[in-house]
Amino acid sequence: xxxxxxxxxxxMDLGASRRGVDMGPSAIRYAGLxxxxxxLGIDVHDxxxxxxxxxxxxxxxxxxxxxxxxxxxxxxxxxxxxxxADEICRVSLELAQxxxxxxxxxxIAIVLGGDHSIAMGTLAGLARAGRKPGxxxxxxxxxxxxxxxxxxxxxxxxxxxxxxxxxxxxxxAELRSSVDGRNAVLVAxxxxxxxxxxxxxxxxxxxxxxxxVDRSGMAAAMERAIGIAGKGxxxxxxxxxxxxxxxxAPGVGTxxxxxxxxxxAQLAMEMLAASGRLRSIEVAEVNPxxxxxxxxxxxxxxxxxxxxxxxxx
Length: 313
Known about the structure:
The chain is of the alpha/beta class. The chain has ten helices and ten strands.
């Protein structure tokens, strides 16, 4: 496994209705991410945080190339509105550029969110670097709505639709079709909107639901997921912390009961490390406002370390 990583934080909560996940990168760093990885002998480079407009600032920023300067700008689809889509896309394009640079430099990108709309940028960055990785998407939700199917219009429920090419406007071509849906796997999903079922089929994505994990066990589920995602150019891991049961990970943006146990989540990471196929790690939806003693961020650090080779012995 690559022994060099580069960390980038994306403090964005514009893709969700509930605020707070913009503090996720700070919480994860504070929980000891750097020290945990350095203890494994990993060379750690931290690229800092991207600049993201804040709703309280009227969504106006001064960074170069900023495109979003209208607080009322939304994208309207048949399913509702998608607030802040322009700024989310701007940040995702900036993230894509950074992830591409990290990958070309020979590092594993570790992207800290932020809401899960950041996945668009991470995956597009790997594609920009010339890769089309398989994808393991650990999430309580399917995140494969389009603006026309989303009940809420929230962009954090759309990144998998963007990455597999189901969506056009308002998402630029540079963010779309970065992943072949046939090499993408949803794991431990348990909250799927009505129209997302058809979108999963249309994209060719494999869904291993929480019920499947209950029946076959986590080891069998991950063996299947790695077998499918491993057909791509390496594996991109997108980890929404709400995939873990709220009893273990209370500090998440949209908790759903009945998730993975601590040991199931650890086993998933250990099996990914053993595969030797990881190209990137993304952790999303840590919300310190809703957490207890930063335990969700601490769990995120443990899971990242396990994905990068930390074992019991």
